[in-house]
Amino acid sequence: MHTVGELLRHWRQRRRLSQLDLAIAADVSARHVSLVETGKSNPSAEMIVRLADQLDVPLRERNRLLLAAGFAPRYAERPLGGAALQAAWNAVARVLRAHEPYPALVIDRRWNIVMTNRAIDRFLTNVAPDLLRPPVNMVRVGLDPRGLAPHIVNLADVRSLLRTRIGRQLATAPDPELTALYEELLAEGSEEADQPIESEIATPMIFRFGERELRLFSTTTTFGTPLDITLDEIAIESYYPMDAQTGAYFTDMDR
């Protein structure tokens, strides 16, 4: 088992910061950072959280830091649909409903779908049933030949977009399951000769269902200052039409 000093050093190096950089950001001495990392000084729980905050350590990993130092975990992990997070659940559900008639969904840190609005159902009609068994993974549904992949006109661009986003996510906070998903569906050398994307926001997702073509772009919303691991690890993906024809399709379907 790693010591708290070893874990902090790991996160500092992952963020490409020197001990002096971290010390200045956290308003402590570089010597103190060095003593903590080498185990010659036992940091308080407040100091651990202070350093973790400057290192942008996810809440799940902050609990690990606290446990390694002999302190109790500080951040709870409660189900989004449970009583403790009922207000958050209602708020997220309201955001999804307000986005209709356009599609929106909630994903967790491994891109499993947690909640959707009604507009998403139209995209899942012809997806293979086994891909829709919980937990339904957004990346797998999108890239699997039995999912949406045959309907995505610019599949190479979409794969590049997902590779960029998940690669950045893994660089921030490693996760074995997400790494396995990345290696399965997004590793270099896939079928398409993917090109780097110029802009995540400007990259459309172009779907073709029969003779109809839909062009969408997406935005991602996260909770600003969550104190619960579940809220820290979910994101709302909202999709918007890129042209009048796509907008009219969703408006007409809603009517």
Which key phrases capture this entry?
5-stranded antiparallel beta sheet; 434 Repressor (Amino-terminal Domain); Beta-Lactamase; single chain; 255 residues; Helix-turn-helix domain-containing protein; 2 domains; MLTR_LBD; alpha+beta; 11 helices; Cro/C1-type_HTH; 12% strand; 5 strands
Q: CATH topology of the largest domain, which one?
A: Beta-Lactamase
Number of helices: 11
The appropriate CATH architecture of the largest domain is: 2-Layer Sandwich
Query: What's the multimeric state?
Result: single chain
- How many beta-strand runs? 5
Radius of gyration, rounded? Answer: 21 Å
Separation of the first and last Cα atoms: 58 Å
- Overall number of structural domains: 2
Structural class: alpha+beta
Proportion in β-strands = 5-15%
Ranges where pLDDT stays below 50 over 5 or more residues in a row are none
Instruction: Assign a percent range to the helix content.
Output: 40-55%
Question: What average pLDDT do the residues reach?
Answer: 92
InterPro entries: Cro/C1-type_HTH, Lambda_DNA-bd_dom_sf, MLTR_LBD
GO molecular function: DNA binding
Protein name: Helix-turn-helix domain-containing protein
Pfam family, one: MLTR_LBD
